[in-house]
Amino acid sequence: MTMLQIVRVLVASLIIASAVGDEIKNVLLLLADDAGLEMGAYLNKFSQTSNLDALARRGLLFNNAFTSVSSCSPSRAQLLTGQASHSNGMYGLHHSVHNFNVLPSIQSLPNVLRENSNGRILSGIIGKKHVGTADHFRFDFEETEERHPINQIGRNITNIKLYTREFLRQAKAQAKPFFLMIGFHDPHRCGHITPQYGEFCERWGSGEEGMGTIPDWKPIYYDWRNLDIPAYLPVTDVVRKELAAQYMTISRLDQGVGLVLKELETLGFANNTLVMYTSDNGPPFPAARTNLYERGIKSPFILASPNAEDRHHETTGAMVSLLDVYATILDAFHLSTNNSAFSSKSLMPLLRKEPRPQDDDAVYGSHSYHEITMDYPMRMIRTRQYKLIHNLNYWSYFPIDQDFYTSPTFQQILNATLHRDNLPWYRSLQSYYERPEWELYNIKSDSMERHNLAEQPEYKNVLKVLKQRLHEWQASTNDPWLCAPHAVLQAQGIYKENPVCLTLGHESL
Amino acid sequence: MTMLQIVRVLVASLIIASAVGDEIKNVLLLLADDAGLEMGAYLNKFSQTSNLDALARRGLLFNNAFTSVSSCSPSRAQLLTGQASHSNGMYGLHHSVHNFNVLPSIQSLPNVLRENSNGRILSGIIGKKHVGTADHFRFDFEETEERHPINQIGRNITNIKLYTREFLRQAKAQAKPFFLMIGFHDPHRCGHITPQYGEFCERWGSGEEGMGTIPDWKPIYYDWRNLDIPAYLPVTDVVRKELAAQYMTISRLDQGVGLVLKELETLGFANNTLVMYTSDNGPPFPAARTNLYERGIKSPFILASPNAEDRHHETTGAMVSLLDVYATILDAFHLSTNNSAFSSKSLMPLLRKEPRPQDDDAVYGSHSYHEITMDYPMRMIRTRQYKLIHNLNYWSYFPIDQDFYTSPTFQQILNATLHRDNLPWYRSLQSYYERPEWELYNIKSDSMERHNLAEQPEYKNVLKVLKQRLHEWQASTNDPWLCAPHAVLQAQGIYKENPVCLTLGHESL
């Protein structure tokens, strides 16, 4: 090390010391792919997740965390920009023919961290990235599907461990605070691409014949006969087998979390790193992923602070959105963000004190596409008691994505429908396809969202208030779909100062 | 000039001389914005277009040229890639919240010309570009809306003239063959953004009070009382006034064409430049732009060769697609392209000989979006006799774009509908909004597309054959919407070698 380098390190250390007043110097974001609440900490009786459960005990476990969008790329874009998908431009999937990217003007977390800290904070991503353009999400350290096979970088937990080690060593050598995001590809399905590895790639790397071996993974095999089926899924053995495969894959994710946290400890960062765990969207089952129903948006969320004064081994009932991750991470680094009423809000204060629940607590949802062909935009507000969904293309049948279509669960539902067979499911495929423009549910009494109250006279006022709040959120976040589907948004020319929704006259036909 | 530079120029000249065997050395593509056939050469009795008419006399005038997509950015992407919008990824508008870009793998004309000629060919674009990403469409010379106000670079014909001069001088100084594209912004509407300049910006630069002056423009004022109304528009004075404004703007475009051609002559390129004139899509009136009806896709098209042996002052009835522009330009430079059955086909042979019309002559259409919120994908095949349109989101009302919505013509239609007033129009707003999944028209006897034959038993076989051909085109051009709206495309895993459309069971509900 030259003298100049030594001076630089010393100066950098001083800046860090002065900028970070408490014990949090770094942030680690652990992100699952299509995971719901299938973990012990959330009282799932079967899925063994000892590492996640231990992390939950170290931190704050959220019972009311929601993603604002139920699709992979848009969800990751929300995390990294703090903006709803309709605001940041990531309206659907990033890869292949879908080709969605954020708008040119959008700033993302790695770029903002670099620029606002003058390069002081080191950013890294390991695993699945799935957002773009590359320039808009430029991490200092990137080991993602852009340069590795997705399974090798997203499901091979030994690789994830080793790259984590490499990144942490760099952070240590450079004496920089860091933001590291680990994008696990588990427990995503893979049956429609590589069915030879099992529907969830649960056999891949298991050491079985032809499956290869992930050295650090100790597969947990579940006997499907033992499993209970969540209320929103058909009660069939096909579904039980799906769950057994999903849980096996979740065990790989869970052990990966354990390996990463162990690296953090070994390299001496356990005591100054804020750890977050969540998932991009709900599991790939009906009424879950690609939906704004509860199983599509309810997110596992753990916030574990190294600070002794912060809350540990507690749960919180605060209503939070994954949109808040952005502001939380900036706050952890003591950097500020815009603080408009509807923007991303830091969750750091929750580490000190549980807020009193308010009647108007709410989170919002905005889902437009998943695949480019799945044009079924939806907007949502969910309070503690109610959920209102606005289906903007309600004329059309609800779309089914390629990945979910080939799943045994969907195939069973489809075939039962085609053959008019009975299926022990809480709803029909027809009701799943055909949705009204407005769906209003009393979540407290109807968590399955079976009874649409939108047309019930006694809920007229609830509906009116929620519609109004949803519209205000859309307006304040510049939703291009603000006036859809029965009016046209005009926001230029004579309407520049006062954007308006002008009728298409559908109601007069 | 150093000796080395002189040698370089000499070598470059030798390469050109050996590579180009006939008199065509350069290509000039003149592109109008939302123009239809409103010109003297196409027998419009009112719109004065002396420069375009003169160009038509110098070349070949196409009576059966069609754009494959009726929206600005997708159309320009088709011209510059030779691929349908569903293949190149430019599914809708490029700018603002729409944010469409071509797929990462796509090659465009300027890039291909540069790479395949080792930089020998100079490319330039002046005026409206409206495609992206920038890297995917990298012209050597760019003076576009990306660095100028759109009116100044797209409607100010003096600016267009001066930048053309600058580009041609560069080509001359570098002794390089060139491809120059001029993207006129006329006769696009502007009423919803800058109504103070008139609905088509027809007063902008006219020298009237507060309008500024375009030095080279001699505005032509039309008395709306004299004008005839095309059969597809409501017969009202509101529409007559719209046409008068549109024609006035077309006169600016026409004079711009004259100025550009004059520069070509002055700089000595008139005798070795292939000139093309066309428009991105039909005019911004109902059943035209954003539609695959005849007025939305029928394109003005002139191909004027400097070669004495080529056809001049003739018309051709060949069925051609704007997709063919790409291959034509490569062919003009003696560069080859992939020659699959459905790819872009060079029009150069038409300059020598009129082909015999074939019964199965056909062009195809693929329109998915315009604005991001306008999810109304359509696919089309048009033969000499029939047109089949597949409306993939036929459940929904046909969408109206922001620009067209505020137009006096649409406002009149809407208000007449809202107030149940009679309107002398060939169709109702309801029939315009509500379209069946399949539309089959006998264009020869029903050019207004009023009588849908799709459900007529006697056209069952015609329907079947056209559906089959349309499906084959979509399959061979990798249409992500191949199976929409009643099935899911599976093209990975076990279906990788043999992609299939698997049913969603809509018909069984």
Automatic annotation (TrEMBL), chains A, B:
Source species, domain of life: Eukaryota
Keyword Oxidoreductase included in the entry's annotation: no
Cofactors, names only: Ca(2+)
Location of the Sulfatase N-terminal domain: 25-334
Keywords: Glycoprotein, Hydrolase, Signal
Record has Hydrolase as a keyword: yes
InterPro entries for the chain: Alkaline_phosphatase_core_sf, Sulfatase_CS, Sulfatase_N
Signal peptide: 1-21
Protein name: Sulfatase N-terminal domain-containing protein
